[in-house]
Amino acid sequence: MLKDTIAAISTAAVDGAISIVRLSGDDAIEIANSIASINLLNKKSHTISYGFIVDPITLQEIDEVLFSVFKAPKTFTREDIVEINCHGGRFVTKKILSLCLMQGARLAEPGEFTRRAFLNGRIDLTQAEAINDMILADSNENMKLAIHGIKGSVKKLLDPLLENILDIIANIEVNIDYPEYDDVEMLTNDVVLPKAKAWLDNIDTILDRAQSGKIMKEGIRTAIVGKPNVGKSSLLNALLEEDKAIVTDIAGTTRDIVEGHIHLGGLTLNLIDTAGIRDTEDVVEKIGIQRSLQAMEDAQLVIVVLDGSRPLDEQDDELLEMTKDKTRIVVYNKNDLYEVADGISISAAKQEITPLVNKIHELFDHHKIAIEEPVLGNERQIGFMMKAKQSMLQAVEAMENGLELDLVEIDIQDAYTALKEILGEVHREDLLDTLFSNFCLGK
Ligand code: GDP
Ligand code: ZN
């Protein structure tokens, strides 16, 4: 069991107005009490008390602080927790932490508070992951996805499916183990097959939406390609101007260019490195460069920039040919220099790129629905969902080929386990629990 008490500085490692040293575990209150000027042992749970940190050996007063006392089980980790709000200098904060360690706490590993919250059943694995997502969120959309996740949206999404599957598994097992037991419906392929197909549909829908969630969370991998001097850099600058988030971006305006992401009305473009394509003098010749090809291959959106003021040449044709199967937007730039607007025509230099921005929204806005609904949060979750799909597909095929249910059950069981893995809940016990609560077999 997790009996030891862990401690860590829970705020960022910079000087600030306030820092928090957090303790969690059976001895959290006792350890905090041993370095407090006041008695914390008699404090009610979920109360904040004013006092001082006192070095128990030298009796030196260290800092003026607030002690927040939270008693198990209604805490983040379901253990006793004390949070010490101190003045936020790095030196004093570290000193308080070291006193906690001296008094018997162990330095927490990264994520260990959240891990305890998970292991102690306070949150499921997807919620734990969402907490991390919230910390890393850098847009409204990411924030929304994270808060849904923290509130347990994935569990809510999966629970009805899990329940349905478990009912059938339990029923099949009873059929196998107690074939003579009359009170339980004898399942056949005719009954289970349509159910399995419906589960498969459900899984497919969840996987589809997960792709949308991914696009909202991670951004659209975007390549801007075109031969030299068509205006790619100018377009990049114009897009950055459109990025309203950049005004408030703490990292600063130029930072985002380096990171390569642009926020456009709820969508994020992740510019992928197409340097090999962008910088080359001779597109046709150098386009074969592996990296550039790969970048284009990986892109979820390719913006092909053409110079609308000149006739297209071989290099343009080559690029158009190469990208024809991709989700792409062909833009004719420099429309301030030419008359006839053909397709999507813009002027990057004059920052008149609305038709392009509109087209991006037209192509990708439908993904926005993902942040309003429960959605899988990351590759790990998607991976297990794909595993569930694979197993369920096998179950369906097996039934279609007339296999006995006791053989099909293994695949259904695997699908169920994969789904449970998403939540980090893989026990055999719940299967047994359901089995015995649904059917009274006490004879
Ligand atoms: P890149 O090599 O594709 O990145 O192209 P640049 O963005 O460096 O632009 C090449 C040249 O075209 C520069 O002199 C730009 O000022 C010019 N340019 C870019 N966009 C436009 C535009 O919309 N209109 C006009 N008239 N010139 C442009
Ligand atoms: Zn950003």
TrEMBL record:
<feature type="binding site">
    <location>
        <begin position="273"/>
        <end position="276"/>
    </location>
    <ligand>
        <name>GTP</name>
    </ligand>
</feature>
<comment type="function">
    <text>Exhibits a very high intrinsic GTPase hydrolysis rate. Involved in the addition of a carboxymethylaminomethyl (cmnm) group at the wobble position (U34) of certain tRNAs, forming tRNA-cmnm(5)s(2)U34.</text>
</comment>
<feature type="binding site">
    <location>
        <begin position="248"/>
        <end position="254"/>
    </location>
    <ligand>
        <name>GTP</name>
    </ligand>
</feature>
<dbReference type="Pfam" id="PF12631">
    <property type="entry name" value="MnmE_helical"/>
</dbReference>
<feature type="binding site">
    <location>
        <begin position="229"/>
        <end position="234"/>
    </location>
    <ligand>
        <name>GTP</name>
    </ligand>
</feature>
<feature type="binding site">
    <location>
        <position position="250"/>
    </location>
    <ligand>
        <name>K(+)</name>
    </ligand>
</feature>
<dbReference type="GO" id="GO:0042802">
    <property type="term" value="F:identical protein binding"/>
</dbReference>
<dbReference type="InterPro" id="IPR031168">
    <property type="entry name" value="G_TrmE"/>
</dbReference>
<feature type="binding site">
    <location>
        <position position="443"/>
    </location>
    <ligand>
        <name>(6S)-5-formyl-5,6,7,8-tetrahydrofolate</name>
    </ligand>
</feature>
<dbReference type="InterPro" id="IPR018948">
    <property type="entry name" value="GTP-bd_TrmE_N"/>
</dbReference>
<feature type="domain" description="TrmE-type G">
    <location>
        <begin position="219"/>
        <end position="365"/>
    </location>
</feature>
<dbReference type="InterPro" id="IPR027266">
    <property type="entry name" value="TrmE/GcvT-like"/>
</dbReference>
<feature type="binding site">
    <location>
        <position position="254"/>
    </location>
    <ligand>
        <name>Mg(2+)</name>
    </ligand>
</feature>
<dbReference type="GO" id="GO:0005525">
    <property type="term" value="F:GTP binding"/>
</dbReference>
<feature type="binding site">
    <location>
        <position position="22"/>
    </location>
    <ligand>
        <name>(6S)-5-formyl-5,6,7,8-tetrahydrofolate</name>
    </ligand>
</feature>
<keyword id="KW-0819">tRNA processing</keyword>
<dbReference type="GO" id="GO:0003924">
    <property type="term" value="F:GTPase activity"/>
</dbReference>
<feature type="binding site">
    <location>
        <position position="122"/>
    </location>
    <ligand>
        <name>(6S)-5-formyl-5,6,7,8-tetrahydrofolate</name>
    </ligand>
</feature>
<dbReference type="GO" id="GO:0030488">
    <property type="term" value="P:tRNA methylation"/>
</dbReference>
<feature type="binding site">
    <location>
        <position position="233"/>
    </location>
    <ligand>
        <name>Mg(2+)</name>
    </ligand>
</feature>
<dbReference type="InterPro" id="IPR027417">
    <property type="entry name" value="P-loop_NTPase"/>
</dbReference>
<keyword id="KW-0378">Hydrolase</keyword>
<keyword id="KW-0963">Cytoplasm</keyword>
<feature type="binding site">
    <location>
        <position position="83"/>
    </location>
    <ligand>
        <name>(6S)-5-formyl-5,6,7,8-tetrahydrofolate</name>
    </ligand>
</feature>
<feature type="binding site">
    <location>
        <position position="253"/>
    </location>
    <ligand>
        <name>K(+)</name>
    </ligand>
</feature>
<keyword id="KW-0479">Metal-binding</keyword>
<dbReference type="InterPro" id="IPR027368">
    <property type="entry name" value="MnmE_dom2"/>
</dbReference>
<keyword id="KW-0547">Nucleotide-binding</keyword>
<dbReference type="Pfam" id="PF01926">
    <property type="entry name" value="MMR_HSR1"/>
</dbReference>
<dbReference type="InterPro" id="IPR005225">
    <property type="entry name" value="Small_GTP-bd"/>
</dbReference>
<protein>
    <recommendedName>
        <fullName>tRNA modification GTPase MnmE</fullName>
        <ecNumber>3.6.-.-</ecNumber>
    </recommendedName>
</protein>
<dbReference type="InterPro" id="IPR006073">
    <property type="entry name" value="GTP-bd"/>
</dbReference>
<dbReference type="GO" id="GO:0005829">
    <property type="term" value="C:cytosol"/>
</dbReference>
<keyword id="KW-0342">GTP-binding</keyword>
<comment type="similarity">
    <text>Belongs to the TRAFAC class TrmE-Era-EngA-EngB-Septin-like GTPase superfamily. TrmE GTPase family.</text>
</comment>
<keyword id="KW-0630">Potassium</keyword>
<keyword id="KW-0460">Magnesium</keyword>
<comment type="subunit">
    <text>Homodimer. Heterotetramer of two MnmE and two MnmG subunits.</text>
</comment>
<dbReference type="InterPro" id="IPR025867">
    <property type="entry name" value="MnmE_helical"/>
</dbReference>
<feature type="binding site">
    <location>
        <position position="248"/>
    </location>
    <ligand>
        <name>K(+)</name>
    </ligand>
</feature>
<dbReference type="Pfam" id="PF10396">
    <property type="entry name" value="TrmE_N"/>
</dbReference>
<dbReference type="InterPro" id="IPR004520">
    <property type="entry name" value="GTPase_MnmE"/>
</dbReference>
